[in-house]
Amino acid sequence: MNNRPIHDPATWTILREAYEKVVGKERSTIGDISHPETTAFRVPYSARQSAERGRGIFAEADIAKGEIVYDFSRSAQFRDGASFLEFLRIIPYDLACDVLMWTYIQDLSGEREDYNSEDEEEDYNSEDEEEDYYSEDEEDDYLMLITDLDAGSFCNNGRWHANIGWFSDDDYYHVISVDGDEKRNKYKRSYPHVALRDIKAGEELLCNYEQFNERNW
C-alpha cells in the first residue's frame, strides 16, 4: 500500500492561502496564516504513519483525562458549496483528494453552559450574540462544510474506542463565539476535543467519526 504523505508546513500554507483567497480574510476562520507552524493542537503531538491506518497523530506526552487536545482554531469553514468547490478547483489535485476525504458537515448553532474542564470554562465562554459571519434569514445558517487545515485532519477513526472527542453527543452542539477584529468578522467554531481518558505518550490519538455525522451527511 502506498501511504499518503505527511504534509509539512509549506503544504498547509498552500491550503490556508487558498482558503483565505476564496472566502476573504474577513470571513476566514483559521486565524493568521503567516505562521505556518501554528496548529490547533494544545498538547505535544507528532504526525506519522500508523501501522494499520495510514497517516495518524500521536501523543508526545502523557495527556490527562479532560485536558484540551485540539481547539479547531485552524478549521476552515465554508458557508456554501460554491466556495468549497472553488477551493477544490484552485488547490493541487492531490491535495483536493485529501480535502474531499477530510471535510465534514457541522451545525454550529447550539450553545451549552457547562464544560468538562473547569479551568477552561472562562476562556471558552460562548454567550455573545452571533453577528457578521452569519445571516439570520436562512434555515441552515450555521450548517458548515469544515476542513481542518493542519494535522488534525490525520485523526483516524477509533469509533467507540476513541480517546479524544466530546464527552457526549450534546457537547457537539456547544460552540465557541470567536471575537472579530479590524481584519476578521466574528464567527463560531466547535468546542475543543478533549482527552476522553488518560492517554500515554506514544499512543495514537483517535477520534470517533460518528461525532461528525451531521444530518446523515
Please provide a brief summary of the model.
This protein has 217 residues and is an alpha+beta fold. It has three helices and twelve strands; from the N terminus they run H-E-E-E-E-H-H-E-E-E-E-E-E-E-E.
Write the layout of secondary structure elements.
Elements: H1 9-23, E1 45-50, E2 54-59, E3 68-70, E4 75-78, H2 81-90, H3 93-102, E5 104-107, E6 143-148, E7 156-157, E8 164-165, E9 175-178, E10 187-190, E11 193-195, E12 206-207
Parallel strand pairs: 7-12
Antiparallel strand pairs: 1-2, 3-11, 4-6, 5-6, 8-11, 9-10
Strand content: 15-25%
Low-confidence stretches: 111-139
Number of strands: 12
Number of helices: 3
**Class per helix and strand makeup:** alpha+beta
What is the strand arrangement across the widest sheet?
A: 3-11-8
Q: Taking all residues together, what is the mean pLDDT? A: 82
Biggest sheet details: 3 strands, antiparallel
Shape: globular
What fraction, in percent, of the residue positions are helical? 10-25%
* N- to C-terminal distance: 28 Å
Order of helices and strands: HEEEEHHEEEEEEEE
Radius of gyration: 17 Å
Characterise the protein shown here.
With 217 residues, the chain is α+β, with helices and mostly antiparallel strands. 16% of the residues lie in helices and 21% in strands. It has 3 helices and 12 strands; from the N terminus they run αββββααββββββββ. Strands 3-11-8 form a 3-stranded antiparallel sheet, with no helix packed on it. The longest helix has 15 residues. The radius of gyration is 17 Å and the shape is globular. The two termini are 28 Å apart.
